[in-house]
């Protein structure tokens, strides 16, 4: 990682990008015009700062680029960072956007007749197998996870499993699919994270960006 190379900030596509755009603006980070052009096939963009470039990647991949030092900073949901849980990732700033929760849900009829205290082994469809296994192992419950990448709410109705672990914001997706939330695993919001090696080797510019983005988030 050479000090002459621009720093790379990894941003996720999708809903977080919309929420963080005003924060970046307040922090004085201006991506080149093409960044906002949804039909552009480019993935890496200059900014108004010659020492900062932005890459646009899938939500979970922000953590991968960051962990391996291919990006020096990244913005991601705390759900993604918990699932990835990599020692090279340090996430010091809560951006106070992208609020939702990671929760266990199941069909309403099942919730009406069972007691979560009696769980000993569960089969769960989720995009978050590591967080799910850790959460249940902490209280002696074995969670057998089936990895899905979306539309998890279909799984109980089609007999894949009886429970899911997914993000819940308003609860309308669960409700529309006959499911109810039975247990919260974690509160979720978006975070600014840094690669620990980058923080050591280029502390000045990395800390400057962390401070600027952190202050811009507080000013919201
Ligand atoms: N309903 C929601 N309310 C608030 N924040 C959410 C909600 N769903 C997801 N998020 C946050 O936004 C992040 C990205 O979610 P989004 O749905 O945009 O991406 P995705 O489609 O799951 O990602 P990928 O590009 O990997 O398929 C999540 O990791 C979470 O932190
Ligand atoms: O409680 P709610 O307000 O209904 O929000 C929860 C939904 O939002 C997310 O899905 P998203 O819309 O990102 O679609 P996805 O399934 O493609 O991830 C999440 O996976 C839930 O399905």
UniProtKB/TrEMBL annotation:
Pathway, per record: Amino-acid biosynthesis; L-histidine biosynthesis; L-histidine from 5-phospho-alpha-D-ribose 1-diphosphate: step 1/9
UniProt catalytic activity: 1-(5-phospho-beta-D-ribosyl)-ATP + diphosphate = 5-phospho-alpha-D-ribose 1-diphosphate + ATP
EC number of the protein: 2.4.2.17
Keywords: Amino-acid biosynthesis, ATP-binding, Cytoplasm, Glycosyltransferase, Histidine biosynthesis, Nucleotide-binding, Transferase
Domain ATP phosphoribosyltransferase catalytic: from-to ranges: 58-213
One MF term in the entry's GO annotations: ATP binding
Gene Ontology cellular component annotations, sorted alphabetically: cytoplasm
SUPFAM superfamilies xrefs: Periplasmic binding protein-like II
InterPro entries: ATP_PRibTrfase_cat (IPR013820), ATP_PRibTrfase_HisG (IPR001348), ATP_PRibTrfase_HisG_short (IPR024893)
GO BP terms in the entry: L-histidine biosynthetic process
Subcellular location: Cytoplasm
Superkingdom to which the source organism belongs: Bacteria
Pfam families in alphabetical order: HisG
UniProt record similarity statement: Belongs to the ATP phosphoribosyltransferase family. Short subfamily.
Subunit structure: Heteromultimer composed of HisG and HisZ subunits.
Role this protein plays: Catalyzes the condensation of ATP and 5-phosphoribose 1-diphosphate to form N'-(5'-phosphoribosyl)-ATP (PR-ATP). Has a crucial role in the pathway because the rate of histidine biosynthesis seems to be controlled primarily by regulation of HisG enzymatic activity.
UniProt note: domains: Lacks the C-terminal regulatory region which is replaced by HisZ.
Protein's name in the database: ATP phosphoribosyltransferase
Organism in which the protein naturally occurs: Nisaea acidiphila
Species lineage: Bacteria, Pseudomonadati, Pseudomonadota, Alphaproteobacteria, Rhodospirillales
